[in-house]
Protein 1
Amino acid sequence: MSARARPVAAALAIAVVTRLALAGIVWLSLRVFPRFDLYPAQLPDTFFPDRPALDGWARWDAAHYVAIAQVGYGPENPSPNGGLGFFPLFPLLMRGAVELVRATPTAANLTLAGLVIANLSFLVAVALLARLGAARFGDRGGIDAALLLCVTPLSFFFNAAYSESLFLALSLAALTLAGRGRWWWAGVIAGLGGMTRLVGLALAPALVLAAVRRGASARDTVATGALALWGALAYLTYCAWRFDDPFAYFRAQATWGGWDEHVRFYAELFFLHPRQALGGRTEDLVILLNLALAVVFLAFIPRMWRTLDPALALFSTLLIVVQTAFTWVSLGRYLLPAAGVYLVAAAWLAQPRWSGWLRDAAIVASALLLSLLAVLYAHGFWVV
């Protein structure tokens, strides 16, 4: 095995072992304990009632992706506003995978396709992150960055029927291509990221910055930035053509509440009524965890700018700052693709004053919290 491949192979081994362990924990919990009742606004999300090894990985938003893959956008879709609050690439791939193997597009088959896509994307993302880390901090840095990605408390979403792992893989692929001077391909892949999540738009300024710093031609710089926008613009154009509303996505997202409900309410709760937050609704503890993770991610921003490639630092910073400013609901999940944090956190924990039992204790504590949250998600608790 070449020296270049060793950290990638080690990182993939960590990913496989941690995911098998997590899958076993989720399976056992579903075999032993009943799941929670559906929340009032929750779509039915039991796609494999007799297969607990799969069923626990497709809750909550997975049902919206399945609905889009099955019936498309519009009035036939049971999701709020016909599913328009979800970007199309992930459900398109789900439907495409089912059609490719000539299977019937049932909810179960589409969900299975989503799980396969998510887990394959996760392995690609782990490999790309390990390679980036090894190039910057050595083999140990790449492996440790992959380890932190695998044990981050909400990283089980990478393996659920969600778009998080697909978006991370596309983002890292675009940034890797930019690092090699493959500007047009970087823009095309970034555009696919923008068709996966709205925050994929953050790839455009990151790629432009990379092109400017590396002395790319003006044509390549402009083309890369423009191509990075194509996916998101294509979806907004589709909404304008099909539903006469280019802002249909934003109106659909407003169905779940705006800034007052997702930031101001919780800010007042946590800072003005902390005892009520800790002793009241259990769902509020999930938001508090989201906020705690955001504080950790925010704290690593200066270190990213000191030690990482500026393009990766800019992309990660935009994800962290913009999403923390606009919503604290699901914030921990939204922060997961900020890949720069795992790289600098791994290098920070490798310092002599942190390495040893303190580093190991932090990793074990995070892994235990990850296991707990994965079990709660699998049982239908409000971990979204």
Note: The CA atoms of residues 282 and 382 lie 9 Å apart.
Protein 2
Amino acid sequence: MKAQLLQLQNQFNKLNERARDNFNSTLWLAPSFLGVALFYMVPMVVVVYYSMLNNPIDRQFVFFDNFIELFDNAAFRLAAFNTFTFSIVAVPLSLILSLLLALLLEAKIPLKSRFRTFFLSPMMVPVASVVLIWQVLFHHDGAMNEVMLFLGFDKVNWMYSEYNQLVVILLFLWKTLGYNMILFMASLSNVPVTLLEVADVDGAGAFFKFFSVKLRFLSPTILFVTILSLISSFKVFREIYLLTGDYPYEGLYMLQHFMNNIFRTLDYQRLAAAAVIMAVAMILIIAALFIIEDRFGKDVEG
């Protein structure tokens, strides 16, 4: 009987200790949770609420009418198409080029430190200065057109031609490659050396070691870099705005331009609907990336 009482008392003490730990953990997490709720969750709920109203004054629910009206808007369709095409080109390029640079710096090459510094320098340069450099390079009378004339080609009005997205993609790559390269270099240093040595003993070549060993251990970093680059591609409005203003040539009219311009008309319901569509698209893309990474890197994590 006494042994049973002692056993019950021990179980009760363990429960009390677990409850106390949970309570302490909740107290420590409460400030962070309140901050996330106040600055992220509550505003998102408010945006979804406004996206289903006819206007902020009458506040009558129209449910999905604002979304249907938005998809019927030619300016929104153009902005969504341009943002999609820019991201689908710029993000894979940023991913592949930064990985290639990391692999290059992993090898023994001369002037490695200066090479690395060159690609990290854009992180220290303000956006306005970068845009000024690009304006000098791609102005109608700028450096690039002088090179074109020297090579025997005609001048190109870069920001008002079919090549305008190429200009912004180059700017995007110049700004993002250095940071992504550092992330890949850190991930490559964590690849188990023993696996690479075993591959060398088995006579594996460089391509086999990269695709069968290194790439699998790089999968979490690839996911992280892809998400960062995707978010950055959606935020490229800042650079485009400084280059071209509120209403650029149609090839550079992005979702951020559309949302910024309708904000000036105080059309809150359409602005909220556009924000919800953009957020849902980002969530779906990132969820798909997580699923792909989970399947690809499952055996490595195990």
Note: The chain has two domains: 1-51, 66-301.
Protein 3
Amino acid sequence: MMIGACRKEARRAKMAPVEVLGVVDPGYFVRHRPRRKDLTISLESQKTEQAPWTDSIREKIDNLHPASPFQRIDALDTGAPISVVRGLSQFVEREAGRGPTVSNHLVQELLTVRNLCCPRVRHLKSGEMPFLATSVNAHLSEEVATRFRKLKPVILTVWSEEELKQCSWDDPLSDEQMARRIVRVCFEAYRQGGLLSLMDLQWIFHISVRKISELIRRAQKECTIIVPTPGTILDSGRSMTHKDIVIELHLQGYTAREIARITYHSPRAVDNYIGTFESVLILDLYHIPKRLMARILRKGISLIEEHLHLARKHFRDEEDMKRLLECKEVRF
């Protein structure tokens, strides 16, 4: 109400409304300056025109609510041959020194975990498959090697009914059709607490890692999304595309919350990318060497080089960099 009244008075006095807003709401310039036309930041790769299949991918992602193996089991499935249960219980008694009751409970828990990872046929639909994916909590600091990371049982829809109806078995699948399936499966696993690596996707879809990487990069670029993989969520591997998307949207004036909603990425990760990028810009303006930047920010030298590459890509000179940082109330 107050801003509306000020605009009305500004029109009467023939004042620029922006000047009034700068007095009433000092944070106005910080929030809106990057989107103003007078802020000329050189973006070599402006947002391209959306491809026709962009809306369909986003619609599928928004309507994706997969049921995890835990949700599909209506009761604890501890069924196993009596001889197997008895043999395992006796093994626990002998090796762990537990009583028969505790040993039996441990074996029942083990059978439940086994049935979650390998569900019975009645718990699966046509086109679905169980899979052990990398857990979203399998951070690099916890496991030394990839094969020792935490795993998460998930159920993936390799073929949906809609895709089977649209598929012509006489003709090979187009890149767009295959990209839709790959993106959908990655989000299915992610919403069950798992992440699929490129090697996992190669095994599921029987196409090369190089082709899968190409399709994911294309989907991320054309649809402005971040496909959840160990490289994007756990930040393992050299995946430049997701950082590029986040930084470019940031330079276009979107907030961290808006970027997270557009890209389907976590707000914390978006804040981390933006904060690191702006820190690298400040240090670069003072001509700090790359290795010293890495030590100051406690980041790897390769990550610093990636952010410097983005800076050279999106800014013409130091004045453009200063103009952006001044909008964030950085004073030189």
Note: Residues 1-38 form one domain.
Protein 4
Amino acid sequence: MRFAVNAPPFAEPAALVDLGVATERAGWDAFFLWDHMVVDRNGVAIVDPWVVLGAVAARTDRIRLGTCVTPLARRRPEKVARETATLDRLSSGRLVLGVGLGHPAEEYTTFGDSADLPVLAARNDESLAVLTGLWSGEPFEHDGTWFHVERVRFLPTPAQRPRPPVWIACALPSRRAIARAARWDGIVPIHIGSHGVEFLEPGDIDSIVREVGRRRGSLDGFDVVVNPGPPPSASVAEFESAGATWWMTSMDGFPGWVDVLRGIVDAGPPR
């Protein structure tokens, strides 16, 4: 099991950079940021994750860095390709790209875009195809429903070859997202119940692992990320036994959250 900190971008950039540096110092394995544009039209201060992660990369040597998650359906894949290749090279190959459909709907509707989930899923899949094609550094062209790319070589490539790992966010009980994740390098599942987001149990992870294994034929090189909630719904050992490979500590952006999360970070991962 490896241990990650996943922070909301609702703070001053310097405070988030300090949090990322503290994450490495305290022995964690990764530092991720949420990727948001709008979470409340009345105004919530949000900073850009890629700028912050670039600063964290320059001040760390070991931890994995990335977004968890970036809604590709509201991004231009060529811009994401440029940002991620730059961060991967700056960090000497430490990027992990988490991808999801995005939440809330205002992320899209505020700027005149559709928040229809089938549309977002289709744009997400096509954007991933374009992104990985550009990452390859080989001549690439694409003529799809949402994106058109004339033949181009996109350089430099990411430091990681053949590409950085891609994790797919999955809102259970949807099985389509699990199928999508099985085609990539990892899954970040949450459970949507009658009362909203619910934290996962080891049995949920076991079920996901079995389905992904059936679809892939092997779990080699595939990561399963669990956010067990505060307090955790089960022990590290129980989740690891169920097949989780990453334990993610996160926090909602309530007032004073930075200091609370910093205390958790400084205490070190729950090994």
Note: The radius of gyration is 18 Å.
